[in-house]
Amino acid sequence: MHIREYQAWLEAWDRQRTWEQVTLGHTLLHALEELGEISKLVQMIEGYREPNPQDKEQLRHDLALELSDLQVMIFKIAYLSGIDMEEAMVRGQQKADQRFPDPATGAEDRDAYWRRFRAYLREAGLE
After folding, report:
1. Which domains are delineated in the chain?
2. 42 near 63, Cβ under 8 Å?
3. Which residues, 6 or more positions from 6, have their beta carbon under 8 angstroms from its beta carbon?
4. Measuring CA to CA, which residue among 13, 127, 118 is closest to residue 76?
5. Mind listing the pLDDT tens digit for each residue in 24-42?
6. pLDDT by residue (tens digit) across 84-103?
């Protein structure tokens, strides 16, 4: 399925249930709720929280569903705002290519990120 097709399907699906009448702000609140659920699962996968369930594959399965739920809310915000997500994503790709045009600098950029993060930890007395 293409992005534009998915967005059209979601809008039609919502309209059949009159859910397109949920406000933009409330849809954003639902998106934030989904993001919180994703955060909790990522913390479990990384070991910051005790995994529940213990099965890593089940956690990944749960994460996939929550990512899908967040995607629904993002696409709904887009259609409620009159934004074509396929066009927006193409523009996002172009922005990324302009900002980071040389893939060869990826490792250097990553290393700089880790240096800044470690400096933060040292300054905060956490390392």
Report:
1. 3-123 (1.10.287.1080)
2. yes
3. 75
4. 13
5. 999 999 999 999 999 999 9
6. 999 999 999 999 999 999 99
Asked if 49 and 40 touch (Cβ cutoff 8 Å), the reply is yes
The Cα–Cα gap between 79 and 19 comes to 12
Q: Name the amino acid, one letter, at 113.
A: Y
CA distance readout (Å), 4 to 19, 45, 79: 19, 32, 10
Q: Which two tokens stand for residue 54?
A: 């213990």
Query: What pLDDT, on a 0 to 100 scale, did the predictor assign at position 48?
Result: 94
User: Two tokens at 57?
Assistant: 């594959």
Q: Contact, 84 vs 6, CB < 8 A?
A: no
